[in-house]
Amino acid sequence: MAPHRGVYFLANDGFLDYATAFLNSFRRYNPTLPLCLIPFADDIGTLCSLRSSYAFSVLDDDEVLRACDTVGTALRGAQRGHFRKLAMWEGPFDEFAYFDSDTVVLHSADFVFDLLADHGFLTAHGNDPDTRRFVWNDSIEATGRLTEEQISFAGATGFLASRKECLSLADVIGRLPEIGELAPHMCPGLNDQPALNYLMVTSGYRYASLHGLAQAGATGLPVEWWGGDPVDGVEDGRVTRPDDHPPFFVHWSGPLKQATAPLVNRALWEAYRDDATPDASQASRAAAAETAVEVAVAVPTNTDAPITCSFEDGTAQGWSCRIGGARVTVSDTVAHSGAHSLLCSSRAEPWEGPRLPLPAPPTPGSTYTFRLWARLAPGEAPAALKLTVERHASGSVRYDTVVPDTPVTAGSWVELGGAYTLTHEATRLVLYAETLDGTAPFHIDDFTMTVRGPATASADHASPYGLTSVTDGELIRTVLLNAAALRDGEPLRVLEWGAGRSTLALPQLLAEAGVDCHWTSLEHHRGYLDTELLPHLTARPGATVRYMDDEPVTDIEAATDGVRIDVRCWDRGPLHPHFGISHHADRAADLDDYVSHPAKLSGAPGEYDVFLVDGRKRRRCLLTARQLLGDRTAVLLHDAGRPYYHCALDTYPAGRFIGDELWIGAEDQRLLTELLRRRRRCHESLFHGARP
């Protein structure tokens, strides 16, 4: 199996005319080469309507794109879409080329991948004294930071070809201080080009330009033609009188373009803007569409057969590493079968591990079954590995455990397997492996995945309790019903940090069991609340939604079933957890009111019977709950296996890990035993007046 190869382009709806000309020309000469759009900005709706016509996918990893925006802000003082081309090193292709969309392509791009066998980076132009000023000021020489050869390269980055292993966003962000020091010596009018040049020439990989290779004797090598030089002999979109080096593409850059059309070679540009991809047969376009979809998700979308990754072809087969400093490489040190496995190394955090995008688009009700073999690198101490699905939706990211922490050693292979049913709307799913703690390198091998659509997936397989597993959901149910029994007919008082499906499902469970309850849920992301929960809450009697940032309170009719739901929301945005280098600012967000609100509501220990901790700032929330702990108060923590929560757990007099991903704490172990006791009789019979 060959490396995943493809082409990226950068555009948005504001550049639609240029993008259309690019797409028509590209597909004429590259009818089946996978193509992927990197959004220059978020307005890509009209452009995306062309996906099926031109067979391209979209790199829609919000975490990656925001990390690119972080780089632009750091170097240019404001977000610049040009820096999003850095996403190509985090995308689905192992080997790739990139085009600015103000180009028309006039040749197959296949030859570029042959050149990448000997180079880590290829640009179109370079080593041209006349264009060095578009990268460096003359003052760069006095810094002594670069050699004359490195300075003279001055590659134009409107076209760039590379390999995934040559650069990463983690590298870029880690080197921002040293790049920033050279900012006074960089061309002020360019965005990404000077920084990319610095990264290329200091990477340790070979770099070259197509023009440089042509001048060095590469006969007949296609090269970039600048849009400012008139192109003679154009017929039906083809150049009929090329020179010794035929045009690979024509590029209108800088002042040569206006908002809607180039100033020079307009006829050539219009031929492709208005074209319908001449000479490209329907069969070729259909084949391109099929290929583009496959590469966009890094795995085939055919659900009739298992998707497998054995790494025997020497490539990562679509696997990459999560944002961070870790690396994935094919290794022949150990293998479960055959001669190769995938090694994840250079890990700085437990969550840095190999990841695989799942088939798109995700469909609620679909069931994914995963199986792989794992083993620590030789000489490493035993550790625990788990499999997690990263679920993107409504501007937020949630993390669903598929396989809980499983002991793994360096001496033998261990099988990790499990099933995951998507029970929510989602825009993107990514499977990844991580460790409970530590950063030991580890191998994976012989991965298989099967996907069954909602037509064959039963709702019985999904947890009815929210994002928890069925096992953990049953445990939460047991604790709530036992806590209600201890209330002797008084309403159960529950406070939840982190609204979600549990805010709807668990109060409903209590209502059906005849339990009166006051359920308070605290949420920091108004966008998520308004999109995902508010329509359901509005339809439920007895629900109240309060916007805490001095906004009007939304009150809904009084409860009829003895259960009140009171949701209180702050508008702090999605605030991803610290799962990636792009989210450091999220950790500093002001959530003091969100964390301390229960103390302001009650102020006295024992005012709540159960705390559920399943939102942001869980350590601080655990400490707030500890202050409000009464003799009959229980605290439940979800995703309790994450070691950075454990310092807060140590403050509790009694606690234990239960189920798949839960921890429960209280004032003494006897209460825990009582709350976790499975009663032989139906819980509903404990409550007089249970409702049918």
Would you write up a description of this structure?
- The protein is of the alpha/beta class.
- It has 21 helices and 32 strands.
- A 9-stranded mixed β-sheet has the order 27-26-28-25-24-29-30-32-31, sandwiched between helices. A 7-stranded mixed β-sheet has the order 3-2-1-4-7-6-8.
- A hairpin with a 2-residue loop joins strand 10 and strand 11.
- Helix 1 packs across helix 12.
- The chain is elongated, with a radius of gyration of 29 Å.
- The protein starts with a strand and ends in a 16-residue tail after the last helix.
- The model is unreliable at 276-304, 455-462, 552-559, 578-584 and 679-692 (pLDDT under 50).
Cα-to-Cα separation, first versus last residue: 59 Å
Q: With helices defined by DSSP (H or I, 4 residues minimum), what is the helix count? A: 21
Q: Overall mean pLDDT score?
A: 80
Question: Structural class, from helix and strand content?
Answer: alpha/beta
**Overall radius of gyration:** 29 Å
Categorize the overall geometry.
Answer: elongated
The tally of beta strands, per DSSP, is 32
In terms of per-residue confidence, which ranges show pLDDT below 50 for 5 or more consecutive residues? Answer: 276-304, 455-462, 552-559, 578-584, 679-692
Helix coverage percent of residues? 25-40%
Main sheet characteristics: 9 strands, mixed
Kindly report the spatial arrangement of strands forming the biggest sheet: 27-26-28-25-24-29-30-32-31
Which percent band covers the strand fraction? Answer: 25-35%
